[in-house]
Specification:
The chain is mostly beta strands and 144 residues long. It is built from 1 helix and 11 strands. It has a 6-stranded antiparallel beta sheet, with no helix packed on it. The chain has a 5-stranded antiparallel beta sheet with strand order 1-11-5-9-8, with no helix packed on it.
């Protein structure tokens, strides 16, 4: 059985353009146009902190799921957990990665988006993100 934990709420959004960067807090879900200036042509990084899910057993798996926007929004160019770049599996609708062995009590997730073409505003919205806990056998030993 799978149980999702949606990573909504406040994300830190870093707008990078050449040597200049500014950071703002963004409530997700949102459209790019809700917080991204139309003239911004640099890259964008979205960062969120979260705790390790409670009650995990040694038989449980925790996956990061990034749902790609079907309205034309691009997915992240790279995704990082606790400063380690993740190797994600890509399908037509999502990106995913097994985080089970990578989780700490407190974690930092960072998604980096490539620079947009000058004068072309980003379309759609940033991807929806969640943790998916897949329960293993009930015989697993409690981890937290």
């Amino acid at each position: 059985m799978a149980h999702p934990i949606r990573l909504r709420g406040p994300w830190q959004c870093e707008l990078v353009q050449e040597a200049d960067a500014r950071t703002q807090t963004v409530q997700m879900p949102a459209n790019w146009a809700d917080f991204l200036p139309s003239e911004h042509a640099g890259s964008v990084a979205l960062t969120r902190r979260f705790g390790q899910p409670a009650g995990l057993t040694s038989a449980d798996r925790v996956y990061l799921v990034i749902v790609l926007d079907t309205a034309g929004g691009a997915g992240p160019e790279s995704v990082w957990l606790n400063e380690a770049r993740l190797a994600l599996t890509l399908s037509a609708t999502e990106m995913r990665c097994d985080l089970t062995e990578l989780l700490n009590p407190r974690n930092g997730l960072r998604m980096e988006f490539a620079a947009a073409a000058a004068g072309v505003p980003r379309q759609g919205r940033p991807p929806e993100v969640w943790l998916e806990i897949v329960e293993g056998s009930s015989a697993g030993e409690r981890l937290v």
